[in-house]
Amino acid sequence: MQPEADDETKDTPPANARVMLSGVHNKLAFDRLLFFSDAVFAIAITFLALDLRLPEGEAGHPIGDAELWQKLGELWPKYLSFLVSFLVIGLYWQGHHRMFRLINRFDDRLVWINLLFLLCIVVIPFPTTVLGEHANAPAAVILYAGVLALTGLLQAAMWLYATHHSRLVDTTLEASLYRHLVRVVTARMLAAPLVFLASMALASHSPDWAKYSWMLIAPALALTSWIGRKVPAAEKLK
Amino acid sequence: MQPEADDETKDTPPANARVMLSGVHNKLAFDRLLFFSDAVFAIAITFLALDLRLPEGEAGHPIGDAELWQKLGELWPKYLSFLVSFLVIGLYWQGHHRMFRLINRFDDRLVWINLLFLLCIVVIPFPTTVLGEHANAPAAVILYAGVLALTGLLQAAMWLYATHHSRLVDTTLEASLYRHLVRVVTARMLAAPLVFLASMALASHSPDWAKYSWMLIAPALALTSWIGRKVPAAEKLK
Amino acid sequence: MQPEADDETKDTPPANARVMLSGVHNKLAFDRLLFFSDAVFAIAITFLALDLRLPEGEAGHPIGDAELWQKLGELWPKYLSFLVSFLVIGLYWQGHHRMFRLINRFDDRLVWINLLFLLCIVVIPFPTTVLGEHANAPAAVILYAGVLALTGLLQAAMWLYATHHSRLVDTTLEASLYRHLVRVVTARMLAAPLVFLASMALASHSPDWAKYSWMLIAPALALTSWIGRKVPAAEKLK
Amino acid sequence: MQPEADDETKDTPPANARVMLSGVHNKLAFDRLLFFSDAVFAIAITFLALDLRLPEGEAGHPIGDAELWQKLGELWPKYLSFLVSFLVIGLYWQGHHRMFRLINRFDDRLVWINLLFLLCIVVIPFPTTVLGEHANAPAAVILYAGVLALTGLLQAAMWLYATHHSRLVDTTLEASLYRHLVRVVTARMLAAPLVFLASMALASHSPDWAKYSWMLIAPALALTSWIGRKVPAAEKLK
Questions:
Q1: pTM summary value
Q2: In 3-state terms, what secondary structure has residue D4?
């Protein structure tokens, strides 16, 4: 139930430690960590849409209706990369949300792994824009898949760090059930980054196939869900 | 009172399930869902205003006072589309706020319907900008009304999903009163999207009349409020 | 103690009403209103800084150190308008924060007055940019002072709406003390908008004097604080 | 336990004061202060990434893959300045987070010191962009180090203000332990700003060495952590 997990706690006079970390404030510190993360997610997800805009220089010059439809249509690579990024950030947000239903305290290392994960999240609009503008360039596909893979891998690292030897979780789950649960959630977290990693190898041969391969994330997630259903408690964190 | 609504709960050893989903953490997970949504609303509503700016290239060149007034005046289509979008996002935020005073738990599907709804919310600044720049083009009016209609329809879908067979609500309301309440709130949620849908048909004939027709949202909302007043409990969620 | 203030409550079967509006959920609805407002404040305050940038077209071209200092120096009207807007939004945020330490429930009208107030808050970066670019144009000064005055007046209107006949406050303060308190906080809220209104009249004669006059906000606030100190309870909301 | 710290409290009839500041509302006011700050941090940290973009004018013109790699590579000064700013804002966020695990109430002065601190936080993207574009100009290095030093010094001032004579903290820590704790946290807070200050002197001789010197922040932080470990309670706030 203690919001800080470190081994030094035992050396500290318990009375003092409890005063400084008592109830409300630790709860508040933990909440701030999550709300800060949520705010970063929310802003990154909204920034993606900033890239949706007609080419500049048109403003004020009345153009015909057909021409406007055409200009709107020409933006389709941007719509697509926006949509993919939105869905993947949504998936990562859901993973973060789910992960912190089991994790219930933090230490300095978790704060920094989380910050590096958020660094990747805020960077995502950059490769999204590059991909929207250069949809057929292998470089754009590799950059995009690389950033999204790294983001997912950092999330999995955060989960493994927190659950290793129950470091930052409090659970009375039976040991084998706990291990199953951790494995199923890990598998689910790795689905997207592994697909992105694999697509990077494809990209130099065929940027298009690399992009099509990202659709494999959906069946991969469905598969981990299906496996997870065999571990009853894992369902609860899905 | 359980924050997760799925039927598998019954198969799970209750002790384990309760530990993993105990009190504070489920409350926190539900709060995160709402605060994340609020942050997205807040950012989208603020992004609308980014479009209010004088045409670039003027900076630094001192221009006369009359010329500045004129330039500020020429932005009026942008002021109008900003105002309409702000009010509609405000209306949708109020709907979300109201809806989640009855909904008190979530499942994965609700999370994803909510994410799709938020996707529409973050997209809104894009058609708003297009409308501000091409106020008389049917394409701009249709795009704008289409995005705003879709947003409202997704919100109504979320409401219907959550309240169907009391899926994600806890209510001891008498059954017929509950049905009335759901219907009244649904009607209120559909007012804006139905007006926007109807205006899309008008737009190719007359973009102006399509835009004027949006003013019908106000009396439509007033009407649903007036009807709702006959269902005493519905008042509470208005 | 009820989070909704309307007279119809009495007509509602109390059992039902209580279920729908019970504890946690109303508290959450009220919190959402405030956190949504805070997020809007935070984003608007951060957007102000987006206007701080070197003129485009310089990127990549190495320029001398002296030239860079000069370019940074030439931005001073932008630094100033950023600073004034930041401080005024900070003041309005503090007013909102203070106001909602007495207000403890909401109704639909308060939600909409608050939305209109937030509309002004998100608009503020626009006149700030105009003023930073056309620091000597009466039009820029009038627009700026007008938007900031309107924002402050809406805040005062929200306060008067909520406290009128103790509409949305729960207080056991003695009646005359309560009236004093409301008056003192109202005076404090009106200080900035009244100075901005007055400066609008000055602006067409002398934009510079209009801008200097804004410095009167500081002594005006100090004066209301000094008066407020005579009403002991008012101190608590300062 | 009172959320407002001022000496006038004693003059106030305690019953009234308690009503106005009772439980929930003060807790909420304190939470708002922190969540508002977190939102500002989150937005500033995300805005940093807005500067990562290919030079405009490329959009739509298909360019070769090698050319795209080259353009992406040419952005490396931007990647570096983004990374440094992200890590430093992350460090300041962690400091704010840690500080408010001991601080448990606020007064008007703290609100304003915090606002000035946040002003610096929202400004950081500006010198970051300037540094990313003019990586070798002493002016850019001095501006950058100056803003980041000022930010850190304001944070240390906030900490000293709040802990001076236990002004805004409630602690039952033994007096000498409390003093040690305050000193260790102060030292940790001063590490980054002092390195930035020192680098400003270096910058006119060698912008590169000034930038390399920022890497000293890491060992300086490690040193304060190592010293802090000798004060058991300080560990808790690290």
A1: 0.86
A2: strand
The tokens describing B132, both together, are 């501000």
SS3 B70: helix
ipTM over 0.90: no
CA pair distance A38, A96, nearest whole angstrom: 9
Tally of CB atoms within 10 A around A144: 29
- What does the DSSP assignment read for D16-43? HHHHHT-HHHHHHHHHHHHHHHHHHHHH
Q: What is the pLDDT of residue A6?
A: 41
pLDDT level of residue C102 (50, 70, 90 thresholds): confident
C53-91: string of b/e by CB count within 10 Å (b at 16+)? Answer: bbeeebeeeeeebeebbebbeebebbbebbebbbbbbbb
Mutate which: D32, D37, D56, D68, vs A, most A CBs within 10 A: D68
> Which of C218, C192, C211, C29 is CA-nearest to residue C106?
C29
Give the Cα separation of B26 and A98 in Å (integer). 10
B169: β partners: B103
| Interface check A57 vs D, CB under 8 A | no
Does residue A32 register a pLDDT over 80? yes
**DSSP-H helix ranges across chain D:** 14-20, 23-47, 65-74, 76-99, 108-123, 125-133, 138-163, 175-203, 207-213, 217-228, 232-235
Strand, coil or helix: what is C103?
strand
Q: With an 8 Å Cβ cutoff, is B209 touching chain C?
A: no
Contacts A1 to B, Cβ<8 Å: none
Q: Is C180 helix (H, G, I), strand (E, B) or coil?
A: helix
Tokens (6 digits) for B131:
């409308």
Tokens 């030093």 identify what position? D149
Give residue B166's Cα distance to chain centre.
Answer: 22
Using an 8 Å Cβ cutoff, are D167 and D161 in contact?
yes
**Partner A contacted by B25 (CB < 8 A):** yes
What is the per-residue pLDDT for A24? 40
Contact D214, D192 (CB under 8 A): no
CB–CB of A68 and B134 under 8 A? Answer: yes
Which among B50, B131, B117 has a CA at the least distance from the CA of B89?
B117
**Is C93 within 8 Å of D40 when comparing Cβ atoms?**
no
| Min distance B215 CA to chain A CA atoms (Å) | 24
| Closest residue in chain B to residue C119, using alpha carbons only | B86
CA separation for the pair B164, B179 (Å, rounded): 10
With CB atoms and an 8 Å threshold, state whether A21 touches D233. no
pLDDT digits (tens, 9 = 90+) for B22-35: 334 467 788 889 98
Q: Which of D11, D32, D43 sits opposite C97 (nearest CB)?
A: D32
Give the whole-number percent of chain B exceeding pLDDT 90. Answer: 46
- Lowest-pLDDT range, A77-91, A111-125, C20-34, C136-150? C20-34
Q: In whole angstroms, what is the distance from residue B143 CA to residue B138 CA?
A: 8
Distance CA B237, CA D236 (A): 44
For residue D173, the chain A residue with the least C-alpha distance is A16
Between chain B and chain C, the number of residue pairs with CB atoms below 8 A apart is: 125
Question: Which residue in the set A38, A65, A90 is minimally distant from B35, CB to CB?
Answer: A38
Q: Which of A12, A28, A111 sits opposite D232 (nearest CB)?
A: A12
Q: Which residues of B touch C20 (CB under 8 A)?
A: 101-102, 171, 173, 233, 236-237
Average pLDDT, integer, range B83-108: 90
CA distances from A206 to A76, A130, A150, A203, B78 (A): 20, 17, 21, 5, 43
- B31-40, C176-185, D8-17, range with the lowest pLDDT: D8-17
DSSP C130: H
